[in-house]
Amino acid sequence: MASSTTADRMVSTTELRHSFSVAMSKIYQNEVPLYSNLLRLVSSVNEAFLDSHPLIREQFRVTHQLERFHYERHGAIRLGTAEEMAAMARFFALMGMQPVGYYDLSQPPANLPIYATCFRCLDLESLSINPFRMFVSLLRPELVSPTLREKALSILSRREIFSPRALELISSAEARGGLLASEAEEFIQEGLKPFKWSGQATVSLEEYQELQAENPLLADIVGFPGPHINHLTPRTLDIDAVQKGMEEYHIPMKEMIEGPPARECPILLRQTSFKALEEKVYFPVLPQQGGAGSERILGSHTARFGEIEQRGAALTEKGRALYDWLVNKAWTQGVTAADPEAYKEVFRPFPDTWEALREQGLAYFRYYPAKDAAKPRKGASIEELVREGKIAYEPLVYEDFLPLSAAGIFQSNLRRSSSGSSKAAADEADGGKESLQRAIGKNIINEFRTYEELQEESLAACKAYFEIEN
């Protein structure tokens, strides 16, 4: 039997995801030059942080986290129909990305006519190589005013976000159980097309203004030939330093950082961004408006921006309940991140050492045998080995999103607060998660279960290494 050629080999989902992430970053840097400046700033801040924290650098080296910082980023897109979501889910699945977490952005403070999930990989090995993730939101037409709902759906029904060739590659890979190396480059290039910016609107200027008057997000979703990525987000180790650096670089930044306050032991997710750019758009002049078919009017659109995130430890349900309680307390007291010291004071009850977070069951951790750890005596427990230093641990990185932070970023870059009309309609709508799952074509994974499984896997590996009986 002839040996298979390199071109005939199957490409791993991790390899595909990595190549796609790198290609998307290059496209966005070309389309949004300010994003290139942001990447340079983040890289500089990260190196400075690691230089001043050699123990953290060594810890990251031992646990193979250094590599992921070079490539780690997330993106976000907004889809218009269930058919678009189904196609996108199939595309991401071939890169090992599954829907994790349900985000209802129709609720306050966002009041946006969308719900969302995060497509990402799940296992530690894939995450350590390239943890690229995509926050994908979908329009909820039932939350759009009746006068615009039919028009929006009619416009969306006329577009296909993936090319016929992309869908053909997806179908053949699904049937085969993976993508061939000879197809990988074409798969990535065809798959990138929906994410690219188009300065050509598919609606007239009048229609665009009508959609925008109800909600700028509606105009962004409906008015273009594809969803186009609206931001990419590199990860930093010191978001406060990046915020200061943006000011020095004259990058138009958000006024404050979203998420928990600065801490010795970072938790969950802190985010900031540079403000969305105003970009030129050409709008068609429709025949009923006197257009000859190719005539266009120059206008503008504001939606795309650059975001930065600092990821901390994933919290358990107990830890998340405490965090949410403190967030509500801050709201009640009228305290926001705009007053960092007062905000930090509200969060003082949240423990700020890894030992306390672990012992109180507030965060998830990965456990592993310490370097040169000798085999212990028979009958030793995991906790005893942790105390003796034979088992080390590190926090599991939070791979998901915070609805409040997403809402804050969305609102600041839409440059307008949404009305309560979406919320009023949302009160009448139910089964949001089930509806989104039907659109995706598979169940949404509970994010807490993903961290529990990773923690349990690491404990099982330690038990096997040290021959600990259950």
From TrEMBL:
It comes from the Eukaryota. Its EC number is 1.13.11.93. Keywords: Dioxygenase, Iron, Oxidoreductase. The keyword Oxidoreductase applies. It holds the Pfam family HGLS. Its cofactor is Fe(2+). The keyword Iron applies. InterPro entries: HGLS, YdcJ_bac-like. It is an enzyme of class 1 (oxidoreductase). GO terms for molecular function: dioxygenase activity. Belongs to the 2-oxoadipate dioxygenase/decarboxylase family. PANTHER family: 2-OXOADIPATE DIOXYGENASE_DECARBOXYLASE, PTHR39479. This is 2-oxoadipate dioxygenase/decarboxylase.
